[in-house]
Amino acid sequence: MTAQPPAQPTAGSANTAAPVPTLEMVIGGEHVPAADGRVFDVVSPVNGAVIARVPRGGAEDVDRAVVAAQRAFDGEWHSWSQTRRGQTLARFAGLIRDHLEELAATESRNMGKPISSARWEIGAVASVMEYYAGAANKLMGETIPVSKPGFDFTLREPIGVVGLIVPWNFPLMLASWKMGPALAAGNTAILKPASYTPLTAIRVAELALEAGFPPGVLNVVTGPGATAGAAIAAHPGIGKVAFTGETATGQEIMRAAAGNIKKVSLELGGKSPNVVFADADIERFAAESPYSVFDNCGQDCCARSRIIVERSVHDKVVELFATATLKVKVGDPADPATEVGTMVSFRQRETVLDYVRIGCEEGAHIVVGGGIPTEPALAQGAYIQPTVLDRVTSRMRIAQEEVFGPVVVVIPFDTEEEAVRLANDTPYGLSGSIWTRDIAKAIRTAKGIQSGVISVNCNSSVHAEAPFGGYKMSGMGRENSMHAFESYTQVKNVYVDLS
Ligand code: NAD
User: Which domains, from first to last, does the chain contain?
Assistant: First the structure.
């Protein structure tokens, strides 16, 4: 039997004397506290209020979740047809849509993202589930003509128990990129949300039970990365770990996963280029591209945080981009007109302000922003000004390291070859954009840039149907699309001797 869900925090309660709810993890279909009973506070960056308390899970809780997930994998779930898995995912998607407002309000208040963005993201979560609902019964093996007199075929089988570790910037959306293919392929999962943003993960685990997934198919363990996350990465009962987060954490996870040769997929950091050629529609670039780096307050692995611009249009691009930046509406995440809310935490804001200071010490020039908004209405939250830094060279730290905040640097180039060389001049290779009216130049440049995702004359190329992931130190493996689906399976070859 599944327990009743504990009360969820509701929008606005931080401003009242409403009691702070204590939530529980979902393991084996039950709501449970941490084995040692410890909890941690979840704080809204909008006003610093504690909005919930959540179990501080650790290794013992991960052990419990692995037992529950393995039991589910060996039980009823194992006998479900692929079609039934797809139908249940479709119901899950429907329930997510039914609860869109509730989930979006929670995500917005927990993370500080504008409510309009949070609504879009929860809709995207449902779309990802719908994609994998449709894909579930399209997973097929092959028949292979071998040279011996026999019949050879392959089966695509689930891995077993998989661990899904996600960051705080797009909490539920990045979880959905893992949950969708993992469950559609027949695995059972343990989801560990980031400690800043655990609320929607707990809620969707409840919705998964309501949709009809057997208990233990989707478990949520909350807790610190260093304990709960590390226990997932190292656990011998987990066959795959799928991780999104910082590159350094990804390296630790890879090392921990070596113990049982876990399959690993990693979506890591980025320092993506926005390459602007002189023949581009500069006005359109300047009007649209601020959102490619300031959206989600710059806390986006795909943020186009380096404008690499042809020198002949440098001044015009900087002027138009700066003008557009000043129009970006920073404000209360609950206001539907807000375009940029708060950072996830006051600590993260300090890190970003430090980077601006380092950039200035290195010789960068602040064109706009660079500090904390002065409006009294924004004094309580972790707000920061969208910032444009010019006179940057590629070797500066501000041009090399992921800031993970609303800061963009401008670097000029003279030739197409130099543009590609600069675009590739970081350890990362996740995303990027190219702006030009010359299609041949666009394709040459797209082929030259070492990154997993590139868009031409727009800000994004992320779609549920298309592969997403990094080159170089931005990661390994792909999310979304059938590429991700296959990564949650293993191939078995069967040969039948017919002689
Ligand atoms: P993070 O690496 O600090 O944490 C991510 C998750 O890993 C959290 O759940 C955390 O608790 C857990 N974790 C931390 N240490 C761990 C350990 N030793 N073992 C196992 N788990 C551990 O990252 P973050 O600060 O939450 O997120 C920001 C980072 O995520 C940025 O670098 C950003 O570029 C990256 N990111 C990448 C993508 C992508 O798809 N490539 C998408 C979003 C974010």
Answer: 25-268+475-492 (3.40.605.10), 273-464 (3.40.309.10)
